[in-house]
Amino acid sequence: MTASARKRVLLVSLAGDDPSLDPARFDRIADTTDDAVWFGNRLRELGLIDAIAFRTVQAFRGEALPDPEDVDAVFIGGSYHSINERLSWQLTTMAWLERYRATGKPALGVCAGHQMMSVMFDGRVGAVETGRCVGSIPVTLSAAGRGHYLFEDFEPVSEFNHGNTERVVEPPGGAVSLASTDVDPTVALDYGGDWVSVQFHPEMTEEVMVTYFALTHPHLVHRFHPLPEAKRLIANFLKGTGIVDGRTASTDAR
Fold first, then answer.
1. Can you give the C-alpha Rg of the chain in angstroms?
2. Domain holding 25: CATH number?
3. What range does the domain containing 87 cover?
4. Predicted confidence (pLDDT) per residue in 104-145, tens digit
5. Alpha-carbon torsion 100, 118, 55, 59, what sign?
6. Total domain count for the chain?
7. Are 204 and 162 in contact (CB under 8 A)?
8. Are strands 73-76 and 107-110 parallel, antiparallel or unpaired?
């Protein structure tokens, strides 16, 4: 496939800065502390990195977002900041996403991206009532989720990595819940127009989660285990929205 024929996929990084993320701690693993590397590695493992033109903008550092017309699909990543902080770069990103929404092109929000998308549509984000939600946690698909391209070939109950203290406590009107956990009825939402979001992390491996929590919450690291199938959700998004041909993705999710 020629470069000009590849769809342009943008990761809008909301990561922010966390002083506990000493890069030296991540030297032993390939994924480092950078969500661009996480997404890039998952796309490579799925056999999709060469099928798209992938780039990242670090919105949390004030990097300029492109003209929405120059983007074909968007990933909105996780963050160490709450959307309720209403930081200037968060507001700038949401304003850009409003413009991008008007193009009719697809978007996938992850964790903080899930929460940002919900707030954009007048949903509300608040604390997880039971405290921090951490671990490789079972996610139960709703009837809508079982028939949705995002969860194609997933079991009705599948595990994904979580690491959040906030959740969407009041989903936007019109949004359809695709999945739930024991503590969160809206861990996956469809807003229409191929805008979807998930509270969990299909892009983050057990290694990244364990390396992070080993310093901040070592008593929680036992809750994670390898989930080689989880990254397939990223491929499902790209295939389901027509960004890549359904035959392109690797059949080996490992």
1. 17
2. 3.40.50.880
3. 3-240
4. 999 999 999 999 999 999 999 999 998 889 999 999 999 999
5. positive
6. 1
7. no
8. parallel
